[in-house]
Each structure stands twice: as C-alpha cells, then as structure tokens.
Design goal:
This protein has 71 residues and is an alpha+beta fold. The protein contains one helix and five strands, in the order E-E-E-H-E-E. A hairpin with a 5-residue loop joins strand 4 and strand 5.
Length: 71
C-alpha cells in the first residue's frame, strides 16, 4: 500500500495498492489508484480485495471467512 502526496493544494493524498494472486501461480495482477483517495491501506486495498473476490468467485461472510462459489 502507498499514498502519494499532492503538495500545494487542499486535496487528499493519492491512494494506491498493487497486488497479484495466487502467490504460488499468479493468474491476476492489478494496480488500484484513486486520485485524492486518502490512504492506500484504508481505501485502495479494500477495493483491490473486492476485485479479487469477484475475479476468483469468492463470497466473504460477515466473519471474513472466504467461500469458493461456482463460476
């Protein structure tokens, strides 16, 4: 996760997060960049997680456990 500062203006920092999955044999790589989005870990990373959940067909229960669904 990271953020890039935009100096001289009253904007939030840029939020970005880069990821790939699965670790052993990557099938997807993505970069999420949200201009003036705030902090990467609190904004861009959760969005990347949602993208990966959709790509891999995962359902996340309220207790944060993952369940594979058929695609």
């Amino acid at each position: 996760t990271a953020n890039a500062e935009d100096t001289g203006q009253d904007f939030e920092d840029h939020a970005w997060f880069i990821a790939f999955a699965p670790f052993e044999d990557p099938r997807i790589a993505l970069a999420v960049l949200l201009e003036h989005g705030g902090k990467g870990g609190s904004v861009a990373a959760p969005l990347a997680r949602r993208i990966m959940e959709e790509y891999f067909g995962l359902d996340v229960a309220q207790d944060n456990t993952l369940t594979l669904t058929s695609r």
